[in-house]
């Protein structure tokens, strides 16, 4: 009986006619991955990382970073339209594009690419300039979430430095400078119309960060 063909063109048969167990397992695991739902995969990955040596988590995040670079997730997205003015231009709400950009940001800082995520978040903050929003609105809540994202991305960037993964310190400093400028400009813009500044945690994190 001929063994089914495995990816890469190999039949999976050994020289003595027996099928290697490892090849069979890889084929079955791939079949599972293709057919499993997202929640099951998340639960399995979390469980595996929680019960494995730290080296496994390091290998996982390294593979994640390679994938994100390959699919150009670090590219600066078009932030036009991530916030939409409504009510005759007197208020703003989050646009549909924003959620996708924030998902991308979180995959970046979650995998240890803090500076790449901060570069994008700086553009998100800058996109709020010239806009207003109502108190206790969806816009205010969303900006609070972005504030938390910035704080987590800063922590990720610090770990990126500690891990020796920053290949261009000058570029990293430029990213931090851009973010500081975006937050300062936002604060000045919001003061003009008397709104509540939504990026207080990010501002505090940047104030005590020295590179």
What descriptive keywords fit this protein?
disordered N terminus; 211 residues; mainly alpha; single chain; 4% strand; 62% helix; two-stranded antiparallel sheet
Total strand count, please? 2
Strand order of the largest sheet: 1-2
Q: Which structural class fits the helix and strand makeup? A: mainly alpha
Q: Could you spell the SSE succession in H and E letters?
A: HHHEEHHHHH
What gap, in angstroms, lies between the N and C termini?
64 Å
Quote the beta fraction: under 5%
Rounded to an integer in angstroms, the radius of gyration calculated over CA atoms is 23 Å
Mean of pLDDT: 89
Characterize the main sheet.
2 strands, antiparallel
Shape: globular
Contiguous helical run count: 8
Low-confidence stretches: 1-23
Q: How helical, in percent, are the residues? A: 55-70%
Structural commentary:
- It is built from eight helices and two strands.
- With 211 residues, it is mostly helical.
- A hairpin with a 4-residue loop joins strand 1 and strand 2.
- The protein is globular.
- Residues 1-23 have low confidence and may be disordered.
